Amino acid sequence: GGTPGSYSGETPPAITYNSVGTYNVSLTVTNSNSETDTETKTGYITVTPAPTCEWIQQASAFTTASRGVIYLSVVDNNTCWGIANNGSTGAVLKEFTRTTNGGSTFTPGTIGGTPANNVPACITAVNGTTAYVAMYSSNSTAGDAGIFYTNNGGTTWTKQTTATFAGTAAFPDIIHFFDANNGLCMGDPNGGYFEIYTTNNGGTTWVRIAQVNIPANLTGEYGYTNMYDAFGDNLWFATNKGRVYKTTDRGATWAVTQISGFTDFSDIAFNDANNGIAIQVTFETGTGVVTAFQMAITNNGGNTWNSATTGAGQYYTDMAAIPNVAGKYVSVGRDNTGSNPGSSYTEDYGATWIQIDQGTLYISCRFKDDYTGWAGGFNTNATQGGIYKWNNLLTALETSENIKPALILWPNPGNGKINIMLYGMAKKQVNIKIFSFLGELVFEKYERIFTNSQQLSLELTGYGKGIYIAVIESEQERFVRKIIVD
Questions:
Q1: pTM to 2 decimals?
Q2: Over the stretch 9-62, which tens digit does the pLDDT of each residue have?
């Protein structure tokens, strides 16, 4: 099955396999007396489909090393914009990067023509040439804060003055465009109520929403930069008082809900108009260790929230919903120890988390759909790293015909939390056995497989570090894998 099919010599060339399957390998050695000995390994090479999901590393193209991509706006599979931050200080910068070819190349730039003390709070893009940035003044200079836009790919930026954000209290937090014409920008209370503007002509004119249409803010209440989510005509933003403001008509009118037990917010994300998650995380100063965690879910658009528990494996720097897939979210950043970076996803509102990868520090992520998304990280140089594109092959595998039985097992080596993906075994029952390296059966379970690509999870952390052998078999198939728990 391999190419080349045979080779004579001490160092064979690279051997490639073009089809999914299990292959035998033979090695024959010959001495100076022409005596030979042959050993054949049965089922030695297993070729499987690509992982169900992964991040593809791309280059954010910032020339300065350790530039992060902190805010993202994903337009479609070809178009994504991002705002930079300083990897050493964490400061958000007036620098952006964008792609219009799916990330094959990103083009960096500067948000020029803006006040020297302004800081980007949020970015929203409508296509590859037009984007809007909400900016606040770091020294509260009156008249500096506002909305700035570009219609030439970031070559020039212009302030849209009808969103006045007047006075020293002005502080824009979020900006979002529902389509090319209709947008919303929200800022902290100014003049006694949240400063919210809407436009229906691409920002040529912005109109502030009247106080009567916005529930009163609490004393000391404010929003957070870039902390919001939107779906259809709906938009939600969270506040430092554990409350969620919601509009269902693109900002014309608002309602607010207090989440029981929440006194602050860390993230909010919605799959659709009804299903969402809110989290509040408390970190230990200086270490990043998670000292407290709360999560709530809603299935009625945020009218009511119910407390929920999360499973192990979540990352806490950022979380994003997969639009139109209820219950599916991706988390990135560091784990609850504050030390281990990586990413994971859930398909059951956080009850269980499935590892995507470990070792890469991501600081942001956003998705357009189940196939289209990007995560921000830190670059090494202009041609390496800083941004990562989502690659999801799961549904494509499920809908393809004649999938040959195959298995993927990861992470391996790992900490004992093992994911198993089985392909081409729908409507079958499999027996999973785990043996110690000495041959002792330490784990066994039966699973019914319902789809052509089904993921299972095993927990081996309680059995100690070492080498284990996994045997997964049905009536027709048998897979054997070595597992290393470190």
A1: 0.73
A2: 887 887 877 776 778 899 999 999 999 999 998 877 866 544 456 788 999 999
How far is it, in rounded angstroms, from Cα 440 to Cα 43? 23
Predicted pLDDT at 400: 43
Q: Are 205 and 245 in contact (CB under 8 A)?
A: no
Rounded to an integer, what distance in angstroms lies between the CA atom of residue 202 and that of residue 174?
16
Identify which of 356, 257, 242 has the alpha carbon closest to the alpha carbon of residue 302. 257
Residues 298-307: tens digit of each pLDDT? 999 999 999 9
Longest CA span, the chain:
98
Phi and psi, residue 374, nearest 5°:
-135, 155
pLDDT computed for residue 402 by the predictor: 53
Per-residue pLDDT tens over the stretch 132-190: 999 999 999 999 999 999 999 999 999 999 999 999 999 999 999 999 999 999 999 99
The mean per-residue pLDDT over the stretch 418-427 comes to 81
pLDDT band at 398 (very low <50, low <70, confident <90, very high): very low
Q: Position of tokens 């992520």?
A: 365
Place of tokens 């958000």: 92
pLDDT of 335: 94
By the 10 Å C-beta count (0-12 exposed, 13-18 middle, 19+ buried), 433 is classed as middle
Residue among 94, 97, 132 nearest 116 (CA) = 94
Q: What is the dihedral of CA 420, 422, 428, 433, to 10 degrees?
A: -30
